[in-house]
Amino acid sequence: MSHRGSDTDYLALFDAAPDAMVILDSEGLVLDVNERLESLFGYPRDQLLGKSAELLVSGLFRAANAPPDPSQTRPNTGSFAELYGLRRDGTQFPAEISVSQIRRSGESLTIAAIRDGTTRQKVDEKFRRLLEAAPDAMVIIDQAGHIQLVNAQVEALFGYSKQELVGKPVEVLIPQRYHSIHPGHRTNYFLQPRTRPMGAGGLALFGLRKDGTEFPAEILLSPLESEAGTLAITAVRDVTDRKRAEEERSRLFQAEEAIRVRDDFLSIASHELKTPLTTLQMQAESAIRVSIRQSNHPMGPALIRKLEDMFAAIRRLSSLIDQLLDLSRLTAGKLSLQKERLDLSATTAEVLRQFRDEVERTGCNVRLLAETPVWGFWDPFRIEQIITNLISNAIKYGQGTPIEVMVTEVADGRARLSVRDHGIGIASEHRDRIFERFERLVSSRQYGGLGLGLWIVRQIVEAHHGSITVWSQPGAGSIFTVDLPLEASEQPSLKPQPAAKGALIMLVDDDPMIRSTFCEVVQDEGFNVVAASNGRDALRLLQSGTRPQLIFLDLMMPEMDGWEFRAEQQKLPELRHTPVIVVSAADGVDKIADALGVAGYLKKPIQLDSLFRLIDRYCVAQAKGQEHERSAPGTLAN
Question: Which residue has the higher pLDDT, 617 or 309?
Answer without folding.
Answer: 617
